[in-house]
Amino acid sequence: MSTIATADVGHHGGTAPHDDHHHHELGFLQKWVFSTDHKVIGLQYGVTGLAFLFFGFLLMLVMRWQLANPGQAVPVVGEALRTIFGQTVMTDNGALTAAGYNVFGAMHGTIMVFFGIVPVAVAGFGNYVVPLQIGAPDMAFPKLNMASFWCFFTSCVIMMASFFVPGSAAKSGWTAYPPLAGIADLEGGNLWLNGQTVWLIAMVFNITGSLLGSINFITTIIQLRAPGLTWMRLPFFVWAQFVTAFLLVLAFPPLEAAGFMQLTDRVLGTSFFMPTGLVVGQTVAQTWAGGGSPILWQHLFWFLAHPEVYVLILPGIGIIAEVVANNTRKPLYGYKAMVYAIFALGFLSFIVWAHHMYMTGMGAKVAAFFQVTTVMISVPSVVLLTALLLSLWGGAIRFTVPMLFATAFLPMFGIGGLTGIPLAFNAVDLFLHDTYYVIGHFHYVVAPGTIFALFAGVYHWYPKATGRQMNQFLGKVHFWGSLVFINGLFFPMFLQGMAGVHRRWYDGGATYELTAPVLHWNKVMTVSAGILALFQLVFIFNFFTSWRTGKKVGRNPWDATTLDWDTPTPPPHGNFDKPVEVFRGPYEYSVPGHPTDFHPQSQKS
Amino acid sequence: MALLRLASSRIFKSPMSNPILKYLPFFTDAEVPHTVAARPDTGLYSAKLGIWLFLASEVMLFGGLFSAYIFLRIGAEPGYWPSGLLNVPVGTMNTAILIVSSITVVMAWAALKMRQLGKYKFYMAITILCGLIFLTVKLSYEWPAKFNHFGVFIKKDAASKYEEFLGNKHLEEAGQSPRWEITGHLLDAPKGSSYEHQAQHNAEHFAHETGRHDAVTPAEDDYVIQLDAVNANPTDKTNDRPHFWPVPMSNKIAVISAKDVESASVFAPRHSTYFATYFLITGLHGLHVLGGILVFLYLWLPVKGGVNLYKTNPEHLANRVEIAGLFWHFVDLVWIFVFPIFYLL
């Protein structure tokens, strides 16, 4: 409310990005910071999320150094890290401590999932693209949208601040399993100002922001479609965001409830998750009344976190569908089958969660149920992947940078998905549980899977958002470097995992004779990760320089059909400069008899 | 404002060359359709869909908490899930108050739909009043009463010493779960306990009421408790089941050695998983009630988005009341679950 009021007073005029400097500075706060415009909020989410992705990646680099060279000082930046993160995390000579390894591990997972990929894939691309693709002037609730971002931003600040509380940030993994997470970080005696408690508070804000956003998405898609844009004319990206938003609305609240419970366990001495007679470090922990159940947390956590896996991947698949249709110059193969598949996927993702919990000994019957549903969910996943693969068939493929990422996505996501099937089976999972095999599996899904899709999306929509192309040569360098070295980073994980290397070993397995034959892979992975980082610098350079120097483009540089390419570039406030009406399906490329090889949705004939 | 309206209305007409379009401020809401009027094919204005989605997420939120209740209650050891500790008549009254407010909020909405502003204000005032009474009862009576009620769980191997307060032989014969807890008002706490001050206060009160000064023992590691009726007379069959009307506290005293105590606490969240779930769920529910009251106040007061909206766009105000009312019904519904599972079962 108040922003609108100040906006009325401070009406100096926000300007388009490249107008003269005087105006630009005056309007900056209103235009780029406290904005209710879905495009600005999308960019805010996107840029914040990309920054977090890079930060999470850097945390991982330090961990990878430690795994390949246990106990050795981190080169170049070791001392600086000691100064920034303090003695809990780094030794005096600049090596990672065991507690520091746990901090970085927990924060890497948390940041990548909740502060990186979801903000970019769902909130960033969703906010920017969905209203454009459905022909809406904005989201259904612009103020709620702003509230969503500022909730998220608050959670970012709190989470980053947690590095600097006494005892450093959370150390209990992104899963925060009690009972250990219930008593972690309390040595200092401060109930509130410690890593795990601050982590929980940050998560409550993060979840709230995410809920507000997803309610907005669903309402917008149902209510604000342009005339003629019937359900089966929606671009597939919109479908992906629609299902994703439902997953977020329904799956996140139980984790919020669980977060409240762990919070009261830690600060009010309740024992939701703390069992009677808990023994820690050979003494019985008496602080709790007892009678709680650690397994309850796992149920509530995975009830969110499994659908969350699909929250991570579905927007990616949506982006890939857009890029593939546009660059093969032909309609998606099996569009309707894909729509039905994504709904089946969304539904099934709610009844597979306990396949993360086979190790809890929950009983053969329960395990059998979750085994069956988990195998079932691979069917719609394969429908989606196969449809995308068949869409390439017979296409006149333009290998633009987004398309390169999209074509690489297909086999990479394939590896990630197919390596998950053995994990669905109770007996196999007991062996592979918590090994690097699992790490390799889900990183193939989210890194060369989702993150490649996000890169495809950035290269694809960058011209729309900024009015300029990103440099294609640098884009190709970024792509080939990333493709090679991301495989060098993740593929050896399968080999190590099958040999029994555990995911939480601080020294990379050096103390275990059993795993000696596969430990040389640690060096390969660490070197790959380092080089991968260098190629991301190319992307960052390209991203910022193209903003001012890239080739200027018009409304529709990719010759695309969907409504997002039917606005001025960059789209003004309110998006469209003409009344929008839709006459046809989303991907009418290469229609016989039509003068051009694309037939936009808004074109009557 | 008029200038902005003009500007945004020109978006849809003007071509890109229009300078207004180029310098249009980003920070005002675009004219989003279906904020008041329903979209013909869905039959809904956007906020109505939004609130239902929000309520769906709320169902999952409270669903998570209620499933924790079920999980913990089923997993509780016999005798460790208390019952009959809450004041049922007061809970019943609060239930009735919430139901009444749910009715009056519908009346308020209906009055607005018939464009009867006076009636609207009247019914909304009753709704707000009901919400306030509910919260007042909860915060000034129910919760504080719990915080001054004390319970000690006796170690199982020491339970026979306190058989006269626990009555486990009788319970076994009656086929009921054993009783491990002795409850009442704490009159004396072990030295160094954080309850010493509270115990002293209770002891003074007890002495004043009964004229007895024997409640404070010289021993330093004893809990002295003025017993609840159920512990004062554990073999009385009428105490086997919870009472609807609370039974007054007895004047009988129990002295319990701290070394026989497994855990001791007032009826706060840390007392047991029962009170942990009770306080978390009723606390979160209370926050929802408070949120509802604030929104109702906003819609009831003569402010821009509230009653003043009636002059310019009465249908918009009616929509807002409908949305807030849907939320209020949900809050009521949560209570309809809370009441039986904590007060009655």
What's the shape of chain A?
globular
Strands of chain B, count: 5
The neighbouring-strand order within the major sheet of chain B is 4-3-2-1-5
Backbone shape of chain B: elongated
Element pattern of chain B in H and E = HHHHHEHHEHEHEEHHH
How many E-type strands of chain A?
2
CATH first level of chain A: which class?
Mainly Alpha
Tell me the strand order in the biggest sheet of chain A: 1-2
How many separate domains make up the residues of chain A? 1
For the termini of chain B, the CA-CA separation is: 57 Å
Which fold does the CATH topology of the largest domain in chain B refer to?
Four Helix Bundle (Hemerythrin (Met), subunit A)
Q: State the name of the first-level CATH class of the largest domain in chain B.
A: Mainly Alpha
Instruction: Kindly report the average pLDDT value of chain A.
Output: 92
CATH fold field value of chain A? Cytochrome C Oxidase, Chain A
Distinctive features:
heterodimer, A: about 600 residues, mainly alpha, Cytochrome C Oxidase, Chain A, two-stranded antiparallel sheet, 18 helices, 2 strands, about 60% helix, globular, disordered N terminus, B: about 350 residues, alpha+beta, Four Helix Bundle (Hemerythrin (Met), subunit A), 2 domains, elongated
